[in-house]
Write a structure and sequence with these properties.
The protein is an alpha/beta fold. The chain contains 17 helices and 14 strands. It is globular. It binds 3-methyl-2-oxobutanoic acid and zinc ion (ZN).
Amino acid sequence: MTTHTAKKADQVIIFDTTLRDGEQSAGAGLTVGEKVRIAHQLGRLNVDVIEAGFAGSSPGDFEAVRRISHEVEGPVICSLARAVETDIEAAARALEGAAKPRIHTFISSSDVHLMHQMRRDRETIMNMAVDAVEKAKGYVDDVEFSPMDATRTAPEYLYAMLEAAIRAGATTVNVPDTVGYSNPAEFGELIKGVFDNVSNIDQAVVSVHCHNDLGLSVANSLAAIENGARQIEGCVNGLGERAGNAALEEVIMAVVTRPDHYGVQTGVNVREINATSRMISSIFGFPVQYNKAIVGQNAFRHSSGIHQDGYLKERTTFEIMSPEDVGWRGEALVLGKLSGRAGLRSRLRDLGYQLNDEELSDVFIAFKDLADNKREVTDADLEALMREQHRYADTNRRYKLGKVHVICGNDEMPSGNVSMTTPDEDDRSASAEGTGPVDAVCKAIDSIVDLDVELTEFSVSSVTEGIDALGEVTIRIEHNGSTYSGRGSDTDIVVASAKAYVNAINRALMISELEGEPLTATV
Ligand code: KIV
Ligand code: ZN
């Protein structure tokens, strides 16, 4: 057994699946470069396991697992694989560069799945599970097995399957509440049942993977810890399929804040929680709700007079954790046009961006441009600026937006003109009219870009307060039945919209190029 699967009674293994289950959030879709950036930040957060993707599902996922295996040091790197040979082989190949590789293989176990989706009987499925674990074990020592839809599976069959998987070599057995059906009392009992009924359970780590359909995923995960589970799977910001997975930062801070109750510890560097949450929200294009526990922007704001009074007299009257514990740094160091490279570098490092000299030089030019238009450059502005830089780097050989020009008003037909460079380095420009300036600019872009897309979502928000604020536009487009998001920011919201639209188009081109044929059966 490796150190990461070795059991210490009071250690909870934190398994992050933001890049796999999190990426299954409808409307998400990351480039390989974005996944690698997130994985580096998860490394700084010091999670124990990163599920980097589902290598057999597409060339894009394969490449992400492969690059993360080579580039990210520290955590165990894991790939998901169905209980079929081709998936397990793909996972093993993608993980070749990892110092600590794990294959996570899964198969459905509930009767409803067996009857309607798998169309196979229990015995056949049991054999497939055992074969898959044995096959994975031929490649790596560290093998995790998951019976999908465990909480709607007949308990005796579930216990027998976990026992067989451990006998075949699984070092972690995971109990997924795939459809978010369970509740804390029942789920805790199920985990206790696993310990009481699986005879070789002492040879594996018991893990749980809870979905949030009824809003109970964190509570269910904590109930599992109370009953002996020692690996928790989840996603930062609670991302994931449908209503998402357990929000890892909530589980982590619950056990950190209440050691008296849970009696366990994690190796997570909790001071990186805030930077990780912000980076993931920004790259996924999914805002964090204001009142979200731990990472929402109101999570540590006291508003009522009585609370403020108590807090000012003694912080602990109304605060059970301090914002600094999870990496909130306040806005003490606001940058402006007189700020230098060292100040910028240090602030960006606090926000989770480690830049080399060349990258810093590029960002510094963009920062100075912004500071000329804006009195104060805040953390939120810097994050928007980093998104722009990364978008540019990720989509370097794609469509590049040049000038944007619009004519509009309440007495004329809006029209827009854009200039762009195509992937073949061809300089083009086009004009169009539209129902408004944004529509006109998007139509002009459409006439240059030869791609069948439909704009399905458009939202604009202000990055900070004030009339000089950066506007940030998020756009979602559909192309060949898949959704791709794009974001752009600028002090001019029409320009921000054009940047977001081009960014979405470039992502659609990059991701669909790598994705190839979709799987017939996904998770
Ligand atoms: O929700 C689920 O059951 C899963 C498995 C693949 C673990 O994501
Ligand atoms: Zn899941």
